[in-house]
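WARN no homologs supplied; continuing
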Amino acid sequence: MNKRVYKVLEYDKILDILSKKAVSDMAKELALNLVPKKDLKSVEALMDETKEAEGILLRFLKSPIMSFSDCGSEIKRLKTQGALNCKELLRLNSVFKASKTAKANIKRDGDGQIAILPNMADKLYFDESFIKKIDSAVLDEDRLADGASSELFRLRRAFSKENERLRDKLSSLTKSEGISKYLQDSIVTSRNGRYVVPVKAAHKKDVKGLVHDQSASGQTIFIEPEIVVEANNKIKQLEAEIHAEEHRILAELSKDAAEYREDFALDVDILSYLDLVFAKANLASQMKASPPGFNEDGVLHIKEGRHPLVDVKEVVPVTIKIGGEYTALIITGPNTGGKTVSLKTCGLFQLMAQSGLFLPALASSTLPIFKNIFADIGDEQSIEQSLSTFSSHMKNIVPILKSANKGTLVLLDELGAGTDPAEGAALAMSILEEVKNNGGYVMATTHYSEIKAFAMAEPGYENASMEFDIKTLSPTYNLRMGIPGLSNAFEISKKLGIDEKIIERAKSHMSEERARFEELLNEAAASKIEAEKKIEQAESFKRKSQSLKDKALIQQEQADKREKEIVRKAKEEAYEIVRQAKDEAEEVIKVLKKIELSSERERTEAIQTARGALDKKSKELNKDLKSLTKRKNEEAKEIKEGDQVKLIGVGTVATVLSAPDAKGMMNVQAGVMKLNMHMSEVESVLAPKKEQRIVSTKVFKSESKGKMEVDIRGMNIEEGIMEIDRFLDEVFLSGLKEVSIIHGKGTGKLRAGVHEYIKRHSQVESFRLGQYGEGEMGVTVITLK
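OK structure emitted
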């Protein structure tokens, strides 16, 4: 890629933002030097990596890459068998710890959607015993722990005791009558690592000992009393032994670390790359971006793209399409109307996508792969070279024309500007032809009507324009494909107060052909706008129809499940009745067996009692069966053609098209769908409406008008999604703009599944986790379109 274009299209600013999302210095460096790939396979691989990272982030809500150090210098030291200090050993240990965390959290999922990053993580190595050894031996960057070895523990303990004993001895000495009168202060201090007392210079000879220092004024002499010289010597000896033991421990730990020298180097490389990938996913989350698709058909179609460097509160989404029937797009419109931003959005999105970055646009956007991108954007005239605007543009365009061919995208801002309009327009048209004829794609902005007419007449070219609101005399920043920019000079002048006769006289100065051309443009633009409105209405109806169809299919599946459940329960009830009858019969048999041992009178009474019990049970059983049959028949008789019924568990109102048959089956209509259902699936029967027999298409009425939340805690992901889909349809029709889904905190799997689903839902504009007081991570708040 031409690296000059990175700055022109502000790709370098995106990389700077990306680098700040990385954890390690190595990944930050990789981000700042990220270069777009030039082949489809490599680009798709990069995008798949970012998709997997996004999926892992949704599951864990944070990057699995913890802070680690670039251990290049430490690894080089280990090659020379040099001993590392505490800080260097901790830096090495941070690599193993980061590898351990990454390996534990970057796992394959159940459906095989996450596999690339786990394959990378599998190559990471760490040694648990080495991690524990460093953690227990190294206290911080400057000090080993006392327990690094038993000998170090003994020496430091002995040093502490000797040190304390010596200080106590000196402290007593400073308070004694024989010495205290000679001291400048009754304190104990140290010089050259030995404990001393401050003696007045005049009494230097009155305190026997070694002189180590004197004050700047010469008034104080620091003397080591001879009675503590031996104790000081012992402390110095202990210090030397401690230092030797510490050196031995560090050398031993460094020797252990040297065995993993190659593992450390490989881990740093893998962790740095993984850090970069998760930085891409974090950036996508910040920009509310989606992964685009890629094609080999040469079609560039950005849908509702938002320039990532424009304030989100001000940015206006643009839809840009190049490829297929045309490979040259000419954008016209007013100054400061957004032409240049549209041009930069197209080029920047292409660079970002070919680097594996998500785009702040609809996920249905699709892009080809360009081997090179060229851009001449803005007024880049050079004062030092004394070049005019026109000369500056031509200086940039010359090398572009030499390299623009198949597989290149050329972006030209204000093509032909800065010179005579007639010559500039002619030259611009020739440049457009050169790029297009050589197989390149070109997107250019211009003010010239001649170029608009050229694009309308020639095959392979298409017009687009930035919309301008005549009423407010301001640009709307909307890009309209297929519509050339209109000439609004006369209308604007009229609104600003220019006399009508002056405007009419101005029109007379225009050539008849030019005036007719502008008139035709206005008519064509009006027709195009009206057609777009009708297409949008048709698409809206289509989406709603598909939504109703999908819902009806789900309801049919639910009905089938409920029918099977009803049959199963009926069988269980029948089995229970038979079992009870069998138990009663067994009781009778037991009684009859006892009769054989009784007198004739007793036998007669027992038989009569048993017969009475059996008759009673038989009558109860028959009564139950008749009651069940009668209730079903009555229910069947109660439901008539034309009745409105509410479907169990769905809340959808439907109209009965045919009364239940002998088996209880009936036909109902819910919206545009006709369903065959069992009467047991009806929750309630509503009175038929007199004014009509068929329910209107507004079928999905909310069971609780104004309901602003749905609780799916305890459900699995599939059940939760089905409940959310039903809920969103209801609240969408009720006109609510913000609703909540209560999914709980738990393991986070249900929350991740919900986010993955609503991210693609056609009715959802955006979503976020709940804030303090809203349920925080247990609640997702949705803004509807």
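The domain at 709-784 is CATH 3.30.1370.110 (Ribosomal Protein S8; Chain: A, domain 1).
OK
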